[in-house]
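Tokens in:
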């Protein structure tokens, strides 16, 4: 029986990458496989969330002042656990936790990577069956191997990311990750319990027809943003529908759709949130890395996201991200109001 070699699992793909780059130590491949394992475990719980007693609040507040859902906590523990017991990660920072966590054991101290993640982004949507996701970032540690990681390892500018990715627990579950060599997507095949390569070398379309923004904040945006939104709407009126507005309220879903189909996602600053809502280290930087590797752009409205030097772990930033031409339209937009 011919073996179907066209279908690569995540493990086979990362090992193939190792074969192509003999100098690689395999630590990044191990780390990505660990993340894939945790994602499979989270996927099981997300898919039965309506049945198991895993919905609802965990009765805690996170550092963001948001209600922590039981599923948030479960996901947080799964990703922390696989990374702590792996051999490739010296410490982690989670969007759910106030501070980073150093893995202070002989093996982890020798690891060269650190990881930041938002274990379950969009968790407010869990109870209404809207897609949610996990977002992660991988950096080389800046502190010497053998020592315990410190805060400086976790507040590096996004341009120093080694890899970044996300999982969407949706109609099907997909893990997308980027290294500087490209962006690839792996869809979970439940029949074999493996993520299988389904989206090879993803490129963000140069032009798109989708703009994603929470219109409820319209009158809280600066004039320039309101002008750009009017331009998007005017294109619909004047030219018969080249733009359409799509906003799920779950970043992983909105950005994933725009990455594949083309579009722009905006979470601008508002008068009540002058730094925006999204977290630089846990949401903006990983997606900026992925979208730039795929040929798109990401800024805070004025400056490239990946060039921002973080001042703190939970720093927020406005975010404009997506297709190059739509981002250039936004950058060339001037107030006409
Ligand atoms: P709003 C989810 O809470 C999240 O962090 C992102 O996933 C999402 O894009 C954004 O907030 C939605 O925020 O204010 O539009 O509900």
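Residues out:
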């Amino acid at each position: 029986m011919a073996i179907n070699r066209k279908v690569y699992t995540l493990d086979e793909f990362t090992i193939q990458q190792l074969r192509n780059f003999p100098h690689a130590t395999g630590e990044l491949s191990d780390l990505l496989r660990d993340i894939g394992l945790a994602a499979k475990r989270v996927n099981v719980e997300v898919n039965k969330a309506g049945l198991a007693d895993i919905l609802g609040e965990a009765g805690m507040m996170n550092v963001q002042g948001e209600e922590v859902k039981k599923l948030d906590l479960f996901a947080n523990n799964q990703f922390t656990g696989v990374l702590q017991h792996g051999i490739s990660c010296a410490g982690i920072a989670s969007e759910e936790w106030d501070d980073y966590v150093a893995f202070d054991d002989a093996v982890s101290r020798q690891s060269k990577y650190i990881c930041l993640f938002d274990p379950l982004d969009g968790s407010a949507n869990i109870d209404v069956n809207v897609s949610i996701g996990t977002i992660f970032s991988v950096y080389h540690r800046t502190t010497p191997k053998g020592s315990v990681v410190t805060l400086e390892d976790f507040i590096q500018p996004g341009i120093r990311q080694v890899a970044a990715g996300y999982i969407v627990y949706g109609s099907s579950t997909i893990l997308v990750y980027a290294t500087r060599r490209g962006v690839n997507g792996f869809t979970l095949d439940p029949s074999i319990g493996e993520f299988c390569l389904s989206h090879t070398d993803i490129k963000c379309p140069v032009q798109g027809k989708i703009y994603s923004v929470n219109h409820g904040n319209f009158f809280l945006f600066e004039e320039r943003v309101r002008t750009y939104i009017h331009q998007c709407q005017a294109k619909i009126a004047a030219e018969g529908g080249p733009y359409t507005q799509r906003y799920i309220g779950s970043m992983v879903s909105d950005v994933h759709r725009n990455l594949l189909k083309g579009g722009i996602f905006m979470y601008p600053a508002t008068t009540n949130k002058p730094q925006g809502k999204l977290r630089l280290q846990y949401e903006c930087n990983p997606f900026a890395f992925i979208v730039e590797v795929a040929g798109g752009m990401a800024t805070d409205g004025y400056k490239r996201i990946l060039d921002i030097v973080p001042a703190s772990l939970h720093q927020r930033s406005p975010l404009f991200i997506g297709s190059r031409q739509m981002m250039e339209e936004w950058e060339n937009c001037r107030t006409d109001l």
